[in-house]
Request: fold
Amino acid sequence: QNFFSTLKPIEKLICSLIKFECQYEMLELYEKLDDEALFIFANSNLVDSIVGYRLMEQYGEKNILKDWVNAYRETDKRISSYLNELDKVAKLLNENNIPLIALKNSGIAKTIYPYPGLVPMGDLDTLVKRSDFINAHNILTENGYKITTPNKYHIADVNIGYRKGGSEYTTRLKNGQELWFELQWRSVEGRFLRPEQEPNGDVLIDRSIPIEGSAIRILSPEDNLLQVE
Reply:
């Protein structure tokens, strides 16, 4: 008995839809479920925009709950604004000879998924070389970014970030949205790996891949796979 067979019907449907491998019997299952209950479940698991897109694709906007359409469109608009800001920051840093890597969902949204609304992330994760970290911090703060921390027990200080691996910033986008921006020189949170296992961020950046039409870069496919995992 595999794991999938132990799931409830609503869980099976959500898993199938977010994997983009939804089979005919799964669509039959959707038509038997309560749409509002399904939306609440997807929303609570932060995948409502992905499921909404899949349902729009299968049934059309007029034939599904309006909440699905709104969830996808709102997420698509928000993530698009994030990616526009990412391009802006990458250009600013590139003008100062600082390569910027889009990590994790930031890189996935920028280079792999064709629709930003399919990557519902809460912030932007980026990587620079440690030797560029202080300069990158200065460029950010000179362009409207404020160094901060979501943890009230931590101190927002660039020197601590330089010592430990990174700092977090906030800014207000033109559309009024607040953006959290993480600038790191360590590609992996140190507590998850022994020091001798931690990849060297500078090496990862040196073999990273440029993105056509943008100053942003992403990790090589092999490095990206290991980093995301």
